[in-house]
Amino acid sequence: MTQITITTPDDWHLHFRDGDMLNETVPATARCFQRAVAMPNLVPPVTTADMVSEYKQRILAARPKDSTFEPVMTLFLTNNTSCQDIIDAKAAGALAAKLYPAGATTNSDAAVSALDGMFPVFEEMQKQGMLLLIHGEMTAHHIDIFDREKEFIDQNMTRIVSAFPHLKVVFEHITTKEAVEFVLAAGDNVAATITPQHLLLNRNDLLVGGVRPHYYCLPVLKRNIHQQALRSVVATGSKKFFLGTDSAPHEKDKKENACGCAGCYSAWSAIELYTQVFDELGALDKLEGFASHNGADFYGLPRNSTSITLVKEDWVIPAEVTLPNGNPIVPFFGGETCAWKIKD
Ligand code: NCD
Ligand code: ZN
User: Fold this and answer.
1) What domains can you pick out in the chain, each with its CATH number?
2) How far apart are CA 275 and CA 215, in angstroms?
3) For residue 263, which atom of ligand 1 is closest to its CA?
4) Residue 249 CA: which ligand 1 atom is closest?
5) Does the annotation count 246 as an active-site position?
6) Could you confirm whether the keyword Metal-binding appears in this record (predicted)?
């Protein structure tokens, strides 16, 4: 196949950031995605209904002229989040709340350190029909970084899911075969997003022959058997897995640094790279479910009514993009050739 037309896709997990940066990130995503779930890990984080509404307005204001792109808003959970905060955020249009274990990733210091204290909040979310999005990694210093997702499943994910059988839970940016197995074995109320980098790469790509800071993200890339498990499961067409780029921009000098930031800025090439992966897998017929149907169905939103077409044609992803503040950023796979392209 050299051309494929699919329902316009949505991105169920990304980081737009704020301020000037929105003028870069929102158009980059709106070029091919109809909706995107906007992560709330701003500085300060989006912890109240008012902050949700205000952030939504800032994102909408950064849309290209005539764009019908719509952000899907989320609330950042802390140990101080109350049931009333959930009710108010829902009323303000937040469809989901994000659970970050404190210190798990970029701008998550204010997040949840005492998980058990959150159970009444999860109960309220279940009642309100609000989705729980989970960054599933343990953060205790002694736990090896490559085991943090598996440990989270054993210590936390299992008990959250069994305590709230009607709460919709998205296990975000899964990276391991244990996570694939967990999601497959769980009820219909549990699903997962998968990023392009975790389908395309494993930890050798990050570390062999030199450290590649632009491949560094959290959860960190795992060994190849885990990459294979992710590739295999998307090729089955299971409805429990859907597109979430985790596009997470950091300026070039923050990535190419003695203490480099975690995050891959994939908005400029994500749908093309996912298409390349599905083509490599001989599973192009499963791309539309993953990219355009499964996420909307799980969130209980209508599928999009428009479409996009991709053609099999080599192009080189820009090696650098200039941000509105004048600083450079290196897009994910910058300078590399991608085998699929959006048709103009
Ligand atoms: C994300 C970011 O930069 O905000 N970084 C990342 O490596 N994925 C946060 C996150 O999703 O963990
Ligand atoms: Zn993320």
Assistant:
1) 10-306 (3.20.20.140)
2) 19
3) 7
4) 3
5) yes
6) yes
